[in-house]
From TrEMBL:
Superkingdom of origin: Bacteria
Biological process (GO), any one: protoporphyrinogen IX biosynthetic process
Residues engaged in binding 5-aminolevulinate 1: R202, R214
Protein name in UniProt: Delta-aminolevulinic acid dehydratase
Amino acid sequence: MIIRPRRLRRNKIIRDLAAETRLSPSMLVYPLFVREGRGIVEDIPAMPGQKRYSPDTLPRALEEVRKAGVNSVLLFGIPEHKDERGSEAYNDDGVIQQALREGKRHFPDICFIADVCLCEYTSHGHCGLLKGEAVDNDPTLDLLARTALSQAQAGADMVAPSDMMDGRVAAIRAKLDGAGLEDTLIFSYAVKYASAFYGPFREAAGSAPSFGDRRGYQMDPRNVREGVREALLDIEEGADMIMVKPGLPYLDVLRAVKERSCVPVGAYCVSGEYSMIKAAAERGWLDERRVAAESAICLARGGADIIVSYFAPELARMMKEGEL
C-alpha cells in the first residue's frame, strides 16, 4: 500500500515529524550596528525595526536577543572618525572593540562575531587601501589582520572577514595564531557578490563608496563556479566556516558551495531582502512572519547550516512557540 503525501500533511504533528528541513535557534545569527558615542538607541530608516546602538546601550539589545533565544550576534561598527587607511578598525579602543568588551562583560556566553572590513572606517568607503581609484589588495591584508587581532583580543569569539581581498583568510589566521589566539574562529564571507541588495545596509552603516563601486573585488552575480573556487580557497587558507551573501537570490550558489564544502556553510539574508519584506508587509501585500519563516526555511533547504538574518529574534520566538 502506498502512503500518499497528502496523508502526511493532514496533521501538524505528523507534518513536523516528516519535515525534510529542520530549523533551530542555534543556527541563527543576529546582525547589530554599533555607533560610537554614548546613550544612543536610534532607528534605521531604511530598515524598519532595526536600530543603531552605542557600546553602553548594546547590552539592552543583547538582553532582548537572549530572551528571544538567539545565542550569536554579528557586530558592525560605525566610527566617528574616518580616514584613508580605516585606522579606527584596528584601534584597540575603537567602537567595535568597546562593544565587544561591554558585551562580553554582561553576556559572556553569547557568541560574538566581529565583521572584519575597512569600508565602514575609510573616508572613501572602499574595503581596502587605494592605489589611484583601485583597491590595492596586498597592502590591505596587514590592516585586515590587525583589525581581526584587535577584535579577538577585545573578546570576539569569531572574526568574519567580509572585504573579499585575495589571501585575507591566510593573513588573519597567521596573525591570530602568532598571538596565541588559535581558538578564535574565522567565519569568512567567502562568496560575496557585488549585489544591489546591500543598499539599506550601506545607509545603516554609513559605508557607501564615495566613488565607483565594489565590482573590482566583490563577485560577479553571473558566476557560480567562481563562487565555489572562492569558497575552497578560503577553506584551504584556514576558514573554519564560510558564508554565501546574499542569501535568497543565490540559493543555487549556496547549494553548489554546500556540496563541495567540508566546513559549515552560512547564508546571509541581507538588508535588501529584509527591507523588501518589511515594506511589502507594511502595505498589506505579504504576511511578514510567514514570509520571514519561509525565507529561513529556503536558506536551510538550500544548504545553510548557519543563517544570518535581521529576523533572527522573531524566527527564534516562532520556533519556541511551535510556529516554525
